[in-house]
Here is the input.
Amino acid sequence: MPANKKKHDAFARLADWLENGAQPLDEEIGESLADEAYEEENAAEKTIPSVEVKKQTPKKKKRQERHRRKRRDALTVGAYADAWWYRVTAFIVCVSLVGLLLYGVVRMPLFGNADTLADSEVASFYVTHTLEETGAVNIVTGIILDYRGFDTLGESHVLFVAVSSVLLLLSIRGEKDEQERLLESDREQRTEPDHDLVLQGGARLLLPLVLIFGIYIILNGHLSPGGGFSGGAVLGAGLILYQNAFGYDRIGKFFTYRTFRAVSVSALLFYALAKGYHFLTGANHIPGGIPEGTAGAILSGGLLLPLNIAVGCVVTCTMYALYTMFRRGAF
Amino acid sequence: MAETLRLALFAMLMAGGLIFEISAVFGANRFRFSLNRMHPAGMGDTLGLLLMALAMIVYTGFDWIALKILAAVAVYWITSPVCTHLVGKLVRETEEEQLKTEAKEWKS
Here is the structure.
């Protein structure tokens, strides 16, 4: 009988013990206690009279603890978590990252130092020039959609990439068999609030207000606090409320995976093209042909309103897509 | 005189709202079972919030912002009972064992 199998076979070990006495088995048990074969140890304790296994509860608890930790590490952070080189590498990586961060922080200008560009010029430039240059009464929108337009484009793409990775990881492909589907529908019926009368009443009262408020935040973004991100979050929450109250059938009539794909991709494309055109003409001092309008009117600020709408569409779709992907893995 | 009365009213309303909110915080953390915890949470969301909003309105005077505050209270008064209802329904569906033991404790 090979040694490995013998180690895991309580009867073989019992036979061995009967033949050879306690001494070799003692060593073997010591070994098995040292490694993670905790279950085998338990089996040994049951089958073998407690001559050699001293029952010391604190020690046993410690072993149990270590065994559990090892198992958990192997399950969560990977089987290498206990190896010495893994720990050394992790330590080196962490320390060097912290060092890099500290190095960067030390080289930053002092807080409140009047000589640095960020404190002396940029802030006052934004405050004095934003209204005149971008036509936005709300300076924050003027900054994030005009001066830092590409930054906002990147943020919208981050949302899109997040949804794409969730789609890759969680989307359910292929047919489920009958039992799985039954189980799932049973679980949904019991735990999910579909067709709940109280929720439907509340949603009927609130949904129009929520949706109108979200649209108002998006459209009024260049005039008052708000804009695409916050308004999109409100609209997405409204969509989630609608789904919860009226179920997937109702929301599937106007918002499906195709809608999501079309709306978010075209909004992102429009944003990129419009912003690229704006920067291209602005940098070369060519008149862009986009009317600025009178500041304070709803149709003013040049590109800010369409860009806000595009960002709002992307954020709405992202919110709802993340929710539904995490809830049931499909639209 | 009127100013003093207004401030006194504001202080009373604010103190009442704070009492409700603080007891809601303690209750929501003190009880163990979810249905018991829902009761103080709902209390803070309704009466505590209303009293504090009224206090703010008394303090600033009645204008558009006061209407917005009242609208926020109205939204809370619609959503909080709905949330409470849903959580209670979920507890009833999923924690039958716990509910039974709680009921036994209450009877004895």
